[in-house]
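S1.2 Input.
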Amino acid sequence: MPTSPNHAPFRTFLTLDDASLLAQCEVHTYRASGPGGQKRNKTSSAVRLHHLPTNLTTHADETRSQHQNKAGALKRLRMKIAIERPDVIDKDHTFCSTDKLEDRIHSDRPFSGTPEGRRDIEVHNPQPRDSSVRMHYQPSPELAICINEGRLQISSRNLAFPLVVHEIISLLSTLEGQTKPLADLLGITPSNLVRFLKSDPHIQRATNQIRKSHGHLPLK
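S1.3 Output.
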């Protein structure tokens, strides 16, 4: 698993606004090839981003607008960081949200769910060396507010979606790919968690890679 530079959590990159995240990238523009006609190829509207801290690359070339393609590449970069760069979570961990991020989220688009999901949760480590070891975990505000009555609900269009995905993938990695302990930890049903993990092919692929590395069968 890659290590975040200077030991800063990978999650930190997901709290940045677009301008700050873009400033960490090498930006390459090029002429898109393929369908779209001559107008599509007259200008270098396609965009490729190389995020230097994580060494991840994304691109977008769907439109003739370089500005729109840059926004699309940034959105893909956030999801790629969320899925491919999980953080290592210790047994006494609390996720925090920056005021700046919460201001952006609440001003642009409301969360799904209610704040009732904010709570401290305590579960047994699924494979503890010492049976008395417990994992003390407090979900981030972004995730907690999406959990209501045992269900996780959040739209992929929600600005907090990459943060929620990253937190769940990080927890799944910490819990060695086991979905039941993770569902218990979050206070949601196992079936609801599995549906979330299968809701996006990239999330499902990352989930199955984690599960395979710990000897579990893939989610189908």
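S1.4 Remarks. The longest strand covers residues 25-30.
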